[in-house]
């Protein structure tokens, strides 16, 4: 499966690697290799990093903590201390590097650096004014969280090409019946 980056925040995009959270969950990060591919697809690193089973478990735990924190921000609930601690611990190491090389942009670092960059993006979102703009996709069964940066703050779907198009097509079919 291909990864999508439509949430408006890298941390939410990591959380979005699980679909259909209220039903039969679909995980796009089913293995350490998938996580390595995600770091490249996310534009964090140029080459897939080495990912051990422990690294993978830590990344999945970070993903779930980000989801719970963003859900809490969306509903106005308090952040769980353990989730905050996990996010802060992941954000603490040096982030991935972006350097201007001889042939253009060169992104580097290891998995820890890539996860640090991701955790820092989530931290900036959750601790800043955009935390109040976190929404959940209205398309059933999608549960992706995203930042509603639309002009009127009325965005309903995580991605117009997928969820929005499906919802509009279903509404059209219902009207035609």
Could you please describe the fold and organization of this structure?
The structure is a single chain. By secondary structure, the chain is mainly alpha-helical. The protein has one domain (10-176): Jann2411-like fold (Orthogonal Bundle). It is built from six helices and six strands. The strands form three sheets. It has a two-stranded antiparallel sheet. A two-stranded antiparallel sheet has the order 3-4. It has a two-stranded antiparallel ribbon with strand order 5-6. Strand 5 and strand 6 (145-147) form a beta hairpin.
Structure keywords:
177 residues; mainly alpha; two-stranded antiparallel ribbon; 6 helices; globular
Short description:
Pfam families: ABATE, zf-CGNR. This protein has 177 residues and is mostly helical. It has 6 helices and 6 strands; from the N terminus they run H-E-E-H-H-H-E-E-H-E-E-H.
| Percent of residues in helices | 40-55%
Order of helices and strands: HEEHHHEEHEEH
CATH A-level architecture? Orthogonal Bundle
Total count of strands:
6
CATH homology-level superfamily: Jann2411-like domain
Q: How many separate helices? A: 6
Look at the structure and give the CATH class.
Mainly Alpha
* Straight-line N-to-C gap: 34 Å
- Could you give the order of strands across the largest sheet? 1-2
Question: Runs with pLDDT <50, length 5+?
Answer: none
| CA-based gyration radius | 17 Å
Q: Largest beta sheet, briefly?
A: 2 strands, antiparallel
User: Please, how many domains?
Assistant: 1
Protein name: CGNR zinc finger domain-containing protein
Pfam family, one: ABATE
Organism: Nonomuraea insulae
